């Protein structure tokens, strides 16, 4: 109850001067979050608190606590490659993380020893290497001896061989279908053991891939070694696990605790969770940061780092590599051309010896630009093929195209369908493809995100070269044909993307027109170089770096203001629960009668469709939504037939609902 945090901040500044100011941010904010330096008139800012006049007399501490001498205090920053201010504000966050985590853990150990004991983690990364080796040996024994599979084995062997390299900044350029998920994990585990690192952090852009990859890692290593941490996934509390065993509860509680500070050998998380935490101010978000140090961080699909925050994200990775004994691996088939953005002393090392030859070995498609095409012409094209995938840039365009070919063994995929619905449709699609039956699919780009399908022909609306490469990865995936066909087209006006997506599509179009093979490594590099050159200052659209630089000499940082600006996703969405099947309806019924309806949210995740706030409000106005417990928004059963299509998912209340169409994946 006594304001000990302000007192502590005052004392370190008095004792240690400049170094004390670095410590003062964390001490002042260890309960309420890192403060802005601000001004003396703002009582919540650090400067305002340091000028506080009504602090009680705390001088008795000097009889109990002996502070280290100034010469005994040092911070071992090797370099400041991005600038002194960036390195110092980064250090303040990591010191703050260590402080608040220690504070929480000490309190927990004193007041709840049983809970504290669940955090015990006696996992050996050496044993996990052995477990992975056994899994891979068994997996490889059952695959046919094809050229593609032999190349996949070579990729894995190279990753293991290069794992002994010194910690640093790496790229791993592996074509789609090359087995980069398990190969990168093999590199990371051996690299961590070789260099005494503590954990592997696997950072993924989409929740649709993260759930898939986390499930693979749990299958290999076991439930207790893999933490899945993102906004769509919460570990159940004891109250919501009425029918579960004591083991299930202890496991869920262990994982829930690990999500607080990432003290787990393998953490699988999202770009949003990872990068926003590195620029956060709240203790709940910062608490994990010190456990990123001394880790191997794999950035999967590295080209998906949001362009508007590319500079601060890349510089954060540079800082981790330079001063926090962290190895970073940018892992993708389409490496972003970041070398020009990096400080001259940072030179990423490619793990693959000859990525160009790998590309040729996995080249399974021919890409052809067919120019402008109307929806009617495109529909006729699709109906000419018995097995074909068409990927477009918006949910509206996907719905219009699907309606033109529906009834002809056609299927639709978009995030207007709840995950349970999409899973059912995808299962049907895969079965029909395997058995050689007619199968025509119209999808948004969600199918590019780690969905394992194999079509002989793919059509792709104009987009960035990286997305075209992902689309091509769904064509002749297993190399069973001599050559798959990928047709890239310019759609009618309503199918053209807006804003940033329009710029990437325009650059993609120019690369298509002047390169014989728009997907080779040089074309991909040219695409990103042009994109980054055009974007220019927009690579740091919120001016995060300028905010840090402005007051770096005085160490006057705006931690809270930066945290507010650093939002990788512009607008928050709300999940609408669709009463999809009997299982869903039973869970909804339990939620209606529960005092804690929110505890059912995780179970209902696979039945949700994300919508923008404006659409939610319109649905509420029309009486389509039931609100349970103030937390769950449920589509009323009596309107399901008219509001939710079994073919295309949640229908728009008005056509304008599609005008702000951005992929929610």
UniProtKB/TrEMBL annotation:
Pfam family, one: Cas3-like_C_2
CDD domains hit by this protein: Cas3''_I, DEXHc_cas3
Cited SUPFAM superfamilies: P-loop containing nucleoside triphosphate hydrolases
InterPro entries (alphabetical): Cas3-like_dom, CRISPR-assoc_Cas3_HD, DEAD/DEAH_box_helicase_dom, Helicase_ATP-bd, Helicase_C-like, Helicase_Cas3_CRISPR-ass_core, P-loop_NTPase
Domain Helicase ATP-binding positions: 161-353
Domain of life: Bacteria
Keywords: Antiviral defense, ATP-binding, Helicase, Hydrolase, Nucleotide-binding
Domain HD Cas3-type as annotated: residue spans: 1-105
Domain (Helicase C-terminal): residue spans on this chain: 366-556
SMART domains recorded: DEXDc
Gene Ontology MF term list: ATP binding; helicase activity; hydrolase activity; nucleic acid binding
GO biological process entries: defense response to virus
Protein name: CRISPR-associated helicase, Cas3 family
Organism: Carboxydocella sporoproducens DSM 16521
């Amino acid at each position: 109850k006594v304001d000990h945090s302000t007192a502590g901040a005052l004392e370190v500044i008095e004792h240690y001067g400049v170094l004390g100011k670095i410590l003062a941010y964390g001490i002042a904010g260890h309960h309420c979050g890192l403060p802005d330096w601000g001004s003396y008139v703002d009582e919540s800012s650090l400067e305002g608190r340091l000028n506080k006049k009504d602090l009680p007399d705390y001088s008795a501490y000097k009889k109990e606590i002996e502070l280290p001498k100034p010469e005994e205090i040092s911070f071992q920053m090797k370099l400041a490659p991005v600038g002194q201010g960036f390195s110092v504000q980064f250090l303040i966050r990591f010191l703050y993380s260590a402080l608040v985590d220690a504070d929480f853990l000490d309190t927990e150990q004193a007041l709840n020893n049983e809970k504290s004991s669940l955090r015990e983690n006696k996992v050996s990364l050496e044993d996990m290497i052995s477990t992975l080796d056994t899994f891979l040996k068994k997996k490889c024994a059952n695959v046919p001896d094809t050229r593609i599979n032999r190349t996949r084995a070579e990729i894995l062997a190279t990753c293991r061989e290069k794992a002994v390299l010194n910690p640093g900044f790496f790229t791993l350029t592996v074509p789609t279908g090359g087995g980069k998920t398990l190969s990168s994990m093999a590199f990371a585990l051996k690299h961590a053991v070789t260099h005494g690192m503590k954990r592997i952090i696997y950072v993924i852009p989409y929740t649709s891939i993260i759930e898939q990859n986390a499930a693979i890692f749990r299958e290999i290593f076991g439930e207790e070694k893999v933490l899945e941490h993102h906004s769509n996934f919460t570990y159940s509390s004891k109250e919501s696990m009425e029918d579960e065993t004591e083991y299930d509860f202890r496991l869920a509680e262990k994982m829930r605790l690990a999500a607080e500070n990432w003290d787990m050998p393998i953490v699988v998380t999202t770009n949003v969770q990872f990068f926003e935490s590195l620029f956060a101010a709240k203790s709940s978000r910062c608490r994990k940061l010190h456990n990123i140090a001394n880790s191997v961080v794999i950035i999967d699909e590295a080209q998906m780092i949001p362009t508007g925050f590319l500079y601060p994200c890349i510089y954060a990775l540079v800082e981790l590599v330079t001063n926090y004994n962290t190895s970073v691996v940018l892992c993708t088939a389409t490496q972003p051309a970041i070398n020009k953005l990096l400080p001259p002393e940072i030179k990423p090392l490619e793990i693959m010896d000859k990525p160009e030859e790998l590309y040729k070995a996995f080249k399974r498609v021919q890409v052809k630009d067919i120019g402008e095409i109307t929806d009617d012409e495109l529909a006729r094209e699709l109906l000419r093929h018995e097995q074909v995938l068409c990927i477009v840039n918006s949910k509206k365009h996907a719905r219009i195209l699907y309606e033109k070919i529906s009834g002809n063994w056609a299927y639709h995929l978009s995030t207007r369908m709840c995950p349970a619905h999409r899973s059912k449709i995808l299962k049907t699609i895969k079965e029909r493809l395997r058995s050689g039956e007619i199968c025509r699919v119209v999808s948004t780009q969600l199918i590019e995100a780690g969905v394992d399908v194999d079509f002989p022909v793919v059509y792709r609306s104009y987009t960035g070269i990286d997305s075209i490469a992902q689309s091509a990865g769904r064509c002749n995936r297993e190399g069973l044909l001599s050559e798959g066909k990928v047709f890239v087209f310019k759609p009618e006006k309503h199918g053209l993307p807006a804003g940033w997506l329009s710029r990437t599509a325009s650059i993609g179009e120019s690369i298509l027109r002047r390169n014989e093979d728009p997907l080779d490594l040089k074309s991909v590099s040219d695409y990103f170089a042009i994109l980054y050159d055009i974007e220019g200052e927009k690579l740091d659209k919120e001016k995060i770096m300028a905010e840090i630089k402005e007051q770096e000499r005085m160490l006057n940082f705006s931690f809270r203001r930066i945290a507010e600006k650093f939002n990788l996703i512009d607008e928050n969405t709300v999940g609408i629960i669709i009463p999809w099947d009997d299982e869903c309806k039973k869970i909804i019924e339990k939620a209606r009668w529960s005092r804690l309806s929110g505890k059912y949210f995780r179970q209902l995740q696979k039945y949700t469709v994300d919508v923008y706030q404006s659409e939610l409000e319109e649905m509420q106005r029309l009486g389509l939504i039931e609100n349970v417990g103030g937390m769950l928004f449920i589509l009323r059963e009596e309107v399901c037939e008219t509001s939710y299509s079994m073919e295309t998912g949640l229908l728009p209340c008005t056509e304008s609902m599609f005008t702000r169409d951005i992929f929610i994946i």
